[in-house]
Amino acid sequence: MLIEQASDIKKISLVCSSNNKQILRFLSKSFIFYLQQRKAHNYMNFSDSRFTNICLKMGLEESKTKPNAGSKCSDHSVAFLLIYMICLVPLATGFSLKSCRVSQNVAKCTNSQLKFVPQDIPPTVTGFDLSKNQISRIQRSNFKNLMVLEDLNLHENHISKIDSGAFANLTSLRKLTLNNNKLVKLGELAFDGLGNLTELRLNTNKITALSPTAFQCLTRLKLLDISQNKLETMSNLHLILQHMPQLQELVIRTNVLRTFQSWKLTNRSLDLQTLDLSRNPIRDFRVTANIFPNLTSLIIGDKFSVIPMKWDVKNKTFLRQVSSLDVSGLHTSPENMEALLKTVNSSLTSLALNDIKRNRTQLINLSCSIPTVSKLQFRSNKLITVSSYYFKPCVNVVELDLSENHIKIIDENAFTPMRNLTILKLSKNKLLSVPTAIRTLQNLSQLDLSSNMITALTCQDFSNQTRLKELSLQNNSISTLTECAFKGLVQLQILKLQSSQITDLQGAFKTSLPKLERLQLNGNKLTAIREGEFEGLKSLLRLSLHQNQIKTLEKGCFVGLLNLTDIQLQLNGITTGTLQTSPFKGLCNLKRLYLNDNHIKYFNITPFSDLHQLEELSLHGQHYRGKSSLPSNFLQGLSRLLSFNARNTQLINLGKDTFVNTPNLEKLDLSSNDLENLTPELFAPIQNLKSLYISRIAVHSLDFLADANLNKLEFLQGRHNQYSVVTKDIIKSLPSLQYLDFKYNTFYCDCDNAWFVNWTIFSKRTQVNDAYNYSCNYPNDFKAKRLLDLKNDLKSCSQDINFNCFVSTTSVILFVMAGSFIYHFMRWQLYYAYYLFLGWLYDSKYKNKQVPHQYDAFISYNYHDESWVIGELLPKLEGEQGWKLCLHHRDFEPGKPITQNITDAIYGSRKTICVISRRYLESEWCSREVQTASFRLFDEQKDVLILVFLEDIPTYLLSPFHRMRQLLKKQTYLSWPRAAGHPEVFWENLRKALQTGNNANEENFLSLTQE
């Protein structure tokens, strides 16, 4: 099975832990068995929606109808079946990238001057933005681990070459953008492996040629934009379309196509719905077969072309589905234009006739003669006057766009025939007033008069527009409104008046607009908002007053705005005195208030105490002389506040009770202030805080975070500050931290930051933005170096020197104390253990050596007992019985170590006779001899030891000699004192003992003498 192929297993191992591989293989086999069963029953085809849905979810290509049909594009698909259902790790959040950052599971590497694709991108990202860099080549290894990537943006690079199979590992990719690069040719299998790609953008390159297999794998592609290239021939389009059965939108705008002939394109029907051929110098457009049965949108025309285009569609039914036609700039004869419009006159609803150089009136008549046309676009045609006969036949037009002309005059009856018109666009013309012609259009719902030269509004301008919902008047020169300017607009929902030089509202909004929801007055020259100015706007939701010159907000100026949720008042001249009038009283549903870039200096006032529903308050960028402190009661009443922005408000102090009234605060921006001393008590009331911005606040330490208990904090930005150390306690106090940004700070590159360096590199929970560019400010030798470059130099810091010294000292003291105790109370036992070990060591060394038995017995005795050995033992055993004995004073080799002599003697003799007395037990060398002999006895299982006691020794004297006591329990011995009456029995027993074999299991015949 495909899942068991070696190459696929290798790829699987990159993302799947070993614990899940067996589960993966089992599920993969089960699913493949399911596919085989469906194939056997001929269920596998393109029309099977269940199979299609499964494939789409699993990231597989749809199987071919033919059982044995193969595809290079699908070689990688089944291999990754169910991988990420089984073993996909959670969304990547913890890592430090060298040139990128990750936000919402999208890696963003824009404007980073990258020349190569970075390789440290987490394998779980679904989006990868590499736009605006300097990458010149896409190689096969660039995206090898990004197998769940869905969106790849390579816009605006220097890419001139794509290696074959460069995208082969991106089996989940849906969208690929390669706009604004330097591609000239798309080579063999340039998009191999992208079987799931649905959107490909290649516009603004220099593509002149396509390889026959370049698009071979793009069987699911739905949108292809290859505009602004240098494609010349139909063969290029043939190569594009032959492998894309599902392509729905094809954009080939701004190429150099000179002909478009259907028989050169394809011989089968296409699923294409949108075709954009605009800005190509097409001279000949011919369709001789029904290859576009589903085409709904066609764009064709080039205003720079000087050669007329010939239109030839053999059968009007070939384009019977086209509902949107754009022939802007098309240079053709009236006959061809008429033939063109007749081709689509059964289905056309939208027609664009922009940039038409001649026969405008005739074209409008031809267009409006098509009964189905409801949307007519007539832009950029240099119209100056709109006469009453222009649109006389356009009775069915619902939307008319006359923007970007030079219209100054519109006849009063110009739109009278267009009784069904609902949308009229007249923007970017030269109208001096609202044309009276619109008064006849009682069904208008949208009117655009923006970017004209209108200077005033009269009471009659919109008096008949009772159905108008959106009115755009921005970018005019209306200095003053009138109370009746918008009289009659009872259905108006959106009114745009921005950038129109308005200085006074004159009560225009006290009545008449009961359903207005959005009012844009920004960018004007208003200086004051008077009491009750908007009391007629009961339904208003959003009010834009920013970028005016407002200095005064009178008390009750927003009275009546009970449903208002947003006010934009930034970039005005509002002062603290203005807020003391309580201008926001009555805004019981306000959720967002923007007061940025004003002149508010904080005094002991509570301007927001009535805004109980406020969720977002922005005050950043206040301009006034001097510094101030935020009073503790400034945010009183804002119990539901979620976001507070006080960036660059010249604050020098925040009281510990500043946020007592905002317990639900989630986002706080205190950047660009002089808040050197922040305390844990300040953050105690806002335990739900998730985002904290403290850049440029001149803070010297982050220790306040360690005790702030911000357990839910996910985002921390602290750029351009003066702290140089980030301790373990600070990071550990933020268990939910996902994103950390300390750009433009400098750090101590010593052991104080060793933990932070290690955590930055290996943390899988928190992303540290731009960590690889953090620089050093101490010690002097490390200045201008990168913090993370010194990770190897800081490894020694991970060891706690003080703790190690403590452990070492304690161990030495305990060892000395234990040694002294043992020596005082157990020294004899130690001596014995020491010699026991030596005996074992010697025995281990020699027991396997086959030393010849030079002697019958080795006599082990103390020199104090030498007289008995020489006088009694030697004559009997050597003289009378004929045994060859080994005695140390006679037979030891001179110059050899005594331990070596003892060992050689014991292992060179068949037996060892130990002559034991009190003196013997006290002898160190005798002890060694008996230990070595006992090891030979017990470890080699040989009966080689004979014990002869010269004295009766009490048991308590033997108790310190553990080995000796063990021998007495298991080994028979001879006693010389007990043989005093019968010495001949003693010597006979000794002779028999010497005569027995070496088998330890042999029955021991010896018995105690004189029992």
From TrEMBL:
It holds the Pfam family TIR. The keyword Metal-binding does not apply. The lineage of its organism: Eukaryota, Metazoa, Chordata, Craniata, Vertebrata. Belongs to the Toll-like receptor family. This is Toll-like receptor 13. GO terms for biological process: inflammatory response; innate immune response; signal transduction. GO terms for molecular function: signaling receptor activity. InterPro entries: Cys-rich_flank_reg_C, Leu-rich_rpt, Leu-rich_rpt_typical-subtyp, LRR_dom_sf, TIR_dom, Toll_tir_struct_dom_sf. Residues 853-994 form the TIR domain. Signal peptide: none annotated. It comes from Xiphophorus maculatus (Southern platyfish).
